[in-house]
Specification:
This protein is an alpha+beta fold. 46% of the residues lie in helices and 18% in strands. The chain is built from 24 helices and 26 strands. Strands 2, 5, 7, 8, 10 and 11 form a six-stranded antiparallel β-sheet that branches. Strands 16, 17, 20, 23, 25 and 26 form a six-stranded antiparallel β-sheet that branches.
């Protein structure tokens, strides 16, 4: 009886659906259970839950999250371990204030409700002045001056939170078995039966080697990837970024770099000096270049935009390599996956911090070093210059030596396998040994950072496996980061794959493993070493693993084997994309959603100080209201004259102007009538009285004031028609400069009007003729580059749409599958 062919597509669809459903409903990384609530607060602070694991309430048995000041409730999720609890202590804030709580419940790792928490269950325990329940919300008023308010949640009978076998949640068991399911499906299918066999040729054909592309299609695909990734990053910057320097950027850029540069005392040792453990030469050079190009205005938002371009270039490097290694349709799928990883918000700590370009330089120089050494023709100019990229990596981050170590390891494996070496190997081993030794000599120890290191070898290995499991983040899924590399190594040792591409992929995988080990060693003491800023490195490793699986599938010894490997590669892609989606969702919930409020509070706090030296500045809360750990140190930096003059537009003091008494009439400082809202950022305002049709015009003419940048803005509001207004800046040559937007609207709310004027002395004039009132603020200056970047990042969605259109164009430009001669054409 002839055997019948059956297509594995059905099984693959079931597996992919199972993956998607699990990750949509599955547990958040590392969380067994949690208390969820929506909360609003009158002050910044921390919300914290304490659970008694047998030793009473203590800090080590608690979970803490930052609480944002907002009248709009935000979502908070505080993790709880499994256990039996008779009571939980809930600290709604850690200072004086009022907090509202609603929709409180306990959920499991899958987000399913375990118990709804009645608002009446929250009982005052310490420093609570009053509790008031109304309209589904609990209003908690802290005792004036209180700094440790506490609520108690008592459970009778006791609350029991159970997990699966030996403390492992059901979701974690599913995660660990998910990848094995794909492997077992392929193994089972490979056996076949006398009557039924799997049609693996069909699977191989989906992404098979007969899929070709044209040069135009490849260029369109790369252009589409560029605009999609750049647009996604611009969108994040626009919504959650800021031009205010953040945390150690004040020291690393402001104090140690820009201050001596502006004073004329910047030296090479300063550029090469360590910043904590790292030598960040290229980050400093980029900062100086952008600072000078931006007319000596410090603008972290400009740095964010430049970093986004750097990261997008790395995406193009990987995609270009994939187009060289994979068949066309497989490369298209790979580029789509790469767009998701490079454009995701999981690495928000790097995307939204201008001082993080060292991560992008590390990745870029490491890939150039590995690729130039292992992929290029020996003794070509690229091959000779590759160690320069390795040297550049040393001056990007402390782990820059890892690329040289990876090359040494892979080259050593090749020499041992072949049992021979040549003169080229002397250069490879010699140059990279020098780089490794140099990296060790350049390393600096920071005593305060010893607490972040993995406490022992076993803990380090545990954290290393956790890193390799990203984006699923479950130790059992470390197979994701291990098996593809081991499969490639086995194929290389058995001479199933040969040549520069195999060596280059092995080098990339070795770099990934060693970078994960560096993270585990240096930051393994807390949270399994997981930090948002490290995910850019881990994402490169995950995408390299996917490229390895695609490469092995396209170089399989038979079509049957190629189909099975393609099956595994698609399952791998589904798992990592779903894990990424879940981590991305958690990033928004725990980090990004509160960013706009925090950014606005920081701008107000710093701008108030630079404008008025308000002593309330020193009572502000770091992180929530201040972009620096201590207000005293930040105030000292803000009072440094050269830094103060170079501050970003949002926090630099506004221009001080005074009216010319001989030419001003009908305007007064502060409004007798005008906008109901206070002027933004504490700006001084001048307002005309309401002018009737037959009244004399109101005229304001300022005394000359200095303009340090070419772009001058003011905020205006009013009820006077535009036709009754004249606004102009008059430079010291007597030339009048009209608003850039001649059709600017005038409304009873503040909005900005911009002028372009030469640097130097300028006067401002405003004339209001019959009908209505008009108000304006004191001017503030900005640069053309900063203004352009602020507008450009707002076009993120448009760039994504353009990239998607180019990607579709690439698909239409690629030729159809060739039909073998003599075969029937498809319908």
């Amino acid at each position: 009886m002839p055997s019948r062919s059956r297509n594995p597509l059905f099984v693959l669809i079931l597996v992919l659906l199972g993956v998607a459903v699990f990750f949509r409903l599955g547990p958040d990384p590392g969380a067994g259970f949690a208390i969820e609530a929506r909360m609003a607060s009158s002050a910044y602070g921390n919300v914290q839950v304490y659970y008694d694991s047998g030793h009473g309430f203590s800090e080590k048995d608690s979970t803490l999250l930052p609480l944002v000041k907002s009248t709009t409730p935000h979502f908070y999720r505080l993790s709880l371990p499994a256990g039996t609890y008779r009571a939980l202590r809930f600290d709604p804030i850690d200072r004086d204030g009022t907090v509202t709580i609603e929709d409180a419940r306990i959920v499991d790792g899958q987000g399913s409700s375990v118990r709804n928490l009645s608002l009446s269950a929250f009982k005052p325990y310490n420093q609570i002045q009053s509790l008031r329940e109304a309209a589904g919300r609990l209003e908690v008023v802290v005792t004036p001056g209180g700094d440790d308010p506490q609520l108690l949640l008592a459970f009778d009978p006791a609350l029991t939170l159970k997990t699966g076998l030996h403390g492992v949640t059901r979701g974690q068991l599913l995660e660990s078995g998910l990848f094995l399911l794909v492997l077992l499906a392929a193994l089972y299918a490979s056996k076949g039966s006398p009557r039924k066999t799997w049609n693996w040729e069909a699977v191989a054909g989906w992404l098979g080697p007969d899929s070709k592309s044209t040069r135009t299609a490849r260029l369109l695909l790369l252009a589409g990837l560029f605009f999609v990734v750049l647009g996604a990053k611009f969108h994040l910057i626009d919504h959650y970024g800021s031009d205010v320097p953040y945390w150690d950027q004040w020291d690393g850029e402001g104090e140690t770099l820009l201050h001596p540069y502006l004073d004329g005392h910047l030296t090479a040792p300063v550029l090469l000096a360590a910043h904590t453990e790292h030598r960040i030469l290229f980050t400093r050079l980029l900062t100086l270049g952008l600072f000078q190009a931006n007319d000596r205005q410090w603008d972290p938002r400009l740095e964010l935009a430049c970093n986004a371009v750097l990261h997008t270039v790395i995406a193009l490097l990987l995609a270009g390599f994939a187009l060289r290694v994979l068949p066309w349709r497989a490369a298209v799928v790979y580029c789509l996956t790469a767009a998701l990883f490079f454009g995701a918000a999981v690495s928000a700590d790097n995307t939204l911090a201008g001082f993080q370009s060292q991560f992008y330089f590390l990745i870029l120089f490491s890939l150039l070093h590995i690729g130039g050494t292992l992929l290029s023709r020996p003794r070509s100019w690229v091959w000779w210059l590759a160690p320069l990229a390795g040297a550049a990596a040393l001056f990007s981050m402390a782990s820059g030596l890892v690329s040289a170590a990876a090359i040494l390891g892979v080259s050593g494996v090749r020499v041992l396998r072949d049992r021979k070496s040549n003169r080229n190997d002397l250069w490879i081993f010699g140059a990279n040994l020098v780089l490794v030794a140099s990296g060790l000599l350049l390393k600096t120890n920071v005593p305060d950072h010893a607490a972040y290191m993995a406490p022992d070898f076993r803990a380090g290995v545990d954290v290393w496996l956790y890193q390799l499991a990203w984006p699923v983040m479950n130790h059992g899924m470390a197979l994701l980061g291990i098996l593809p590399s081991l499969a490639l190594l086995a194929a290389f040792l058995r001479r199933r794959v040969e040549g520069p591409v195999a060596l280059g992929l092995l080098g990339g995988c070795a770099w990934y493993w060693l970078q994960a080990a560096a993270i585990a060693y240096s930051r393994g003491a807390f949270n399994h070493g997981y930090e948002s800023r490290y995910t850019d490195i881990l994402a490169i490793g995950v995408l390299l693993d996917l490229l390895v699986l695609g490469y092995l599938a396209s170089h399989a010894p038979s079509t049957q084997s190629g189909g099975k490997r393609t099956f595994i590669a698609i399952g791998f892609a589904a798992i990592i994309v779903c894990g990424l989606a879940r981590d991305n969702r958690a990033t928004y919930e725990s980090n990004l959603n509160i960013r706009p409020d925090v950014n606005a509070a920081r701008i107000v706090a710093v701008r108030d100080y630079t404008t008025t030296h308000d002593p309330a500045f020193f009572q502000r809360t770091p992180w929530y209201e201040l972009p620096y750990p201590t207000p005293e140190r930040l105030a000292k930096l803000l009072d440094t004259p050269v830094l103060r003059a170079a501050l970003p537009a949002s926090i630099r003091p506004p221009v001080a102007i005074e009216p010319d008494p001989s030419a001003t009439q009908g305007f007064v400082k502060r409004p007798p009538n005008g906008p109901e809202s206070e002027p933004p950022l504490g700006l001084a305002t001048w307002t005309s009285a309401t002018i009737g049709e037959n009244d004399a015009p109101a005229h304001f003419s300022s005394l000359p004031f200095a303009v340090d940048h070419s772009r001058v803005g003011i905020l205006i509001a009013g009820s006077a028609p535009v036709k009754n207004l004249e606004l102009r800046m008059i430079d010291d040559q007597g030339v009048a400069h009209e608003p850039l937007d001649r059709g600017f609207p005038v409304e009873e709310r503040w909005h900005q009007v911009n002028f372009i004027t030469p640097k130097g002395r300028t006067r401002f004039e405003a004339v209001v003729t019959g009908g209505g009132w008009f108000a304006f603020t004191q001017p503030f200056t900005d640069t053309a580059v900063s203004h352009f970047v602020q507008k450009a990042v707002g076009y993120g969605p448009g760039l994504i749409a353009l990239g998607a259109a180019l990607g579709l164009g690439a698909l239409f430009r690629s030729p159809r599958r060739r039909v073998p001669e003599g075969a029937a054409a498809p319908p």
